[in-house]
Amino acid sequence: GCYNDPERAGLDAKSVFDGMTEHLFFTLGKLAPTASRHDLYMALSYAVRDRLMMRYLATTEAMRAHPQKSVAYLSAEFLIGPQLNNNLLNLGIQQEAEAALRNFGIESLQQILDVEEEPGLGNGGLGRLAACYMESLASLKIPATGYGIRYEFGIFDQLIRDGWQVEITDKWLKGGWPWELPQPDEACFVGFGGRTESYIDDKGSYRSRWIPAEHAIGIPHDVPVLGYRVNICDRLRLWRADATESFDFYAFNIGDYYGAVEEKVGSETLSKVLYPNDGTDEGRRLRLKQQHFFVSCSLQDMLRSLDNRGLPVEDFPKYWTVQLNDTHPAIAVAELMRLLIDDRHMDWDKAWDITSRSVAYTNHTLLPEALEKWDLNLFSSLLPRHLELIYEINRRFLQQLRLRYPGNDAIQRKLSIIDEDGSKAVRMAHLATIGAHHVNGVAALHSDLVKTDLLPEFAELWPEKFTNVTNGVTPRRWVALANPELSTLLNEHIGEDWISNMENLRKLEERQNDQGFLEHWGNTKLSVKRKLASYIHRNTGVLVDPSTLFDVQVKRIHEYKRQHLNVLQVITQYLRIKNGQADGMAPRTVIFGGKAAPGYYMAKLIIRFINGIAETVNADPDMDGRLRVVFLPDYNVKLGEQVYPASDLSEQISTAGKEASGTGNMKFAMNGALTIGTLDGANVEIRELVGAENFFLFGKTVEEINDLKRSGYNPGAFINAMPELQEALRLIEMGHFSNGDSELFRPLLDNLTGHDPFFVMADFADYLRAQEAVSLAWTDRMHWNRMSLLNTARTGFFSSDRSIGEYCENIWNVGPLNVDITC
Ligand code: 26V
C-alpha cells in the first residue's frame, strides 16, 4: 500500500502550518489569535506526529509482510527527554517548523521548545542509555520495540530550599502529552499472588498451573521513535496498569464494594510512580510487581505478534532477541518459561532452549547495594509459579555444576540463584546470567571487572558468554540538537556526514594547527557559554562570567561519584585566593547539578554542602572575577542539553572501579570539554582515544585502591600529609560554610576522616595537582582550544550507533529492515 500523503502530511513549511492550524481548531479547540505558547507547542507536536505516522505504519507493515528478527529492549526506565525538536531534526524539518511558527507570531522555534515538559521516566544513566539506544536502533534501520512502564509520575522535580533538596511530584502528563498512542485493544492480563496446583493434562502428564489471587491489565501506550533521515520508525511500548473489570463485577455481585474498589486502587497504583533510588535496592514489593507487570505484558505481546503473523512459537528466537537492561526485567527468564510451558504446553527442554537462545543481559553496576535480591517469602507470595520454575532452573544448573566441579559444595552455594546465607533471597543477576546467551558490561574496564570480581565463577564456566559493549550516546540529541552552534561549524568545515557517521569527526584533526579555526572554535564555545550564563542568572540569581573556565559536574549525587571531593578542592582554591596564594589559578565557574535519592541521607547532605560553599564563596568580594560556585536545581535531560555544550571542563572523578561506564563523560568530550578524571569506566577509553596529553588524569587505579583496602586504609595518614586539606576541613568544622553552625556537616566530616569508604582523602592531593595542570593549560587558550578540538575529533567512537552496531553483530544477530514509502 501507499502511505505517502503529501496533501495531509507534507514536509514543507506551508503543510506544517496547515497541519498546525487544523490541530489548533479540531484537536485543541482553539483559534489562532488566542492560542498560548503551550497550545502552539501542542499543535506543532500533533502536526509533527502526523508526519511520523507514514513511516511508523510502513515499518509495522513491512514487519508484518516480511517478518525478520526484531529487538525487544526491556527496560524499567526510558529517559527519553523532550521529543519535538528531536523529531523535527530526524524528519529534517526544523526550518520548516520555524517558518510555520512565524505565521503565528513566534520568532524562534526555541520559544516553543522551551514549554515542552519532559517525561522523566528514568533515574539517570541507565534510563538515558536506553533512550539513546532506541534512537540509534531506528537510525540504523533495525526493527525494535523498547518495552517499559508508563509511570504516571516520573523522577521527582527537585527544588532547593535553604540549600536542601526538596522533592516535588513530577506531574508530566498534566498539560497533555501528544507523543503517545494508547492501544487499548492490545491490552494484556497479568497475575499476582495466589497459589499453584498440580493437575493431570489430557495426555496424562503431570503439570503445574498458577491460580493468581489478583490481576492487572496492561494498556500499551506507544511512542514512535523515528531514526535520523530514514524511513524506519521504531516504537517505545510503555505499559500503563489498569484495574481488571471482571473482578470488579464479581465483587459488586457479592456486595463487596470496598473490596472491589481496593483491588482497583491496588492495580492502578502499579504504574503510578518511578522508584527514585538510583543504586540502592530496597527490595520493595511494589517494585517487584512493577517489574513482573511490564515484563509479562511485553513477552505476551511478543508471542502474540508471532501468532498474528502465523509464525510458530518455536521460532521465537528467530524473530525476537530480548535484551535485559540490568536485572530489573530479569524475571523475563522465568516468565518466558511459564508462558511456553504453562500456556503453550511446551516441554521443559524446548522451552529452555527457546528462552536461553533469546535472552541476553547487560550489567550496569558492581555496587553490592544495587544488586537486586528478592526476599524469598516476598517473592513466593507474589510469584509462586515463577519460584517453582526458578527452583527447577536452579536444580538443573546446580546439577551441571556438580558434574563440572565434583565435590565442590562451596561453588554451588556461591552460584546458586537462591542465596541461603542469612534470610533466603532470589539473586536476580544469577537468574539473568544463567538464562542469557550473552552477558555484557558497559565499558572495557567494567566488563573485565564483571568477569574478575562480580561473576568470576560464571565467567570461568562460560567464558564465551561474557563480553563488552562500551556505552555510547546519540550524536543527534547530544551534538546536533544540543549544540547547534558547534553543528553549524562542523557542517561548514567537514560536511554534515558526521551526524550519522561520527568517525568522520576525525577530519577535524587537519585543523588542529589552524590559528583562525582554533579561534573560531573558542568563540563558538564562548557563545554557548553566554546562553548558559543567562540561564544560571535567571534560575539561581548568580551572575557568572562566560569568559571564566566552566568547570562542571552534573550527574546523580552519590558518594562514589565524589561530588564532595570536588567541593573540597573548591574550598582549597578559595583559601588560596584568601591567602593571596592563587597566582596562576584560572578564574572558574564551578557548576554542579544532580538529584539525590530521597532516602539517601549522605547524598542530600552533599547537596547542602555544595550550596553552603556556594553561598559563602559567591558573597565574598575577594572571589569576584576569580571563583563562582553554582548548584543548578532540577538537573534533567533538557538542562543537560544546555550544560554539556557550554562546558570547558568535565568532572569524572569517581573512585576507580565504581562507575560502570558513565555516559555524561562522552557528551562532554564530544562537545569539546576536556576531562579531569580517574581511570574508571569509559574514562579509560576516552583517554586512550583523545590521547593522554589531552586529558587530565589523576587518582588511584583499581589495583591501588584494592591494595589500600587490603593494607587497612587510614584516611588520617593522608590528611596529616596535607596542611591545605586540614585547613579546609577545619573551616568546615568551624561552620564557615554554614553560618557558624558547626554541627551541620559533621556527618560528612566524620565519614571522610573516619572510614572514607570512597577514598576521597587518598585521591585528594593528586586531584589538586591535576586541577593545577588544568589552570596552567587554561592560560594558553590556543593550546586549550586545540585540545578541545581533538576531544571532539576523536570521540566519534562514543556514538551509540557504534554501540548498537556491536550489539547487532555480536549479541543480537539482527540486521536492517528496508522500508519503502514511495508510491
Ligand atoms: C539501581 C536500582 C536498584 C533497585 C532500585 C531501583 C534501581 C534503579 C536504578 C539502579 C541503578 C542501576 C545501575 C545504573 O544505573 N548504572 C549506570 O548505568 C549507566 C549506563 O550503563 C552507566 O553509564 C553508569 O556508569 C552506571 O552507574
UniProtKB/TrEMBL annotation:
- InterPro entries noted in UniProt: Glycg_phsphrylas (IPR011833), Glyco_trans_35 (IPR000811), Pyridoxal_P_attach_site (IPR035090)
- Keyword Heme carried by entry: no
Q: Which Gene Ontology terms cover its molecular function?
A: glycogen phosphorylase activity; pyridoxal phosphate binding
Q: Does the keyword Transferase apply?
A: yes
**Keyword entries, A-Z:** Carbohydrate metabolism, Glycogen metabolism, Glycosyltransferase, Phosphoprotein, Pyridoxal phosphate, Transferase
Functionally, this protein is described as follows: Phosphorylase is an important allosteric enzyme in carbohydrate metabolism. Enzymes from different sources differ in their regulatory mechanisms and in their natural substrates. However, all known phosphorylases share catalytic and structural properties. Allosteric enzyme that catalyzes the rate-limiting step in glycogen catabolism, the phosphorolytic cleavage of glycogen to produce glucose-1-phosphate, and plays a central role in maintaining cellular and organismal glucose homeostasis.
Cross-referenced PANTHER family: GLYCOGEN PHOSPHORYLASE (PTHR11468), GLYCOGEN PHOSPHORYLASE, LIVER FORM (PTHR11468:SF3)
Q: What is this protein called?
A: Alpha-1,4 glucan phosphorylase
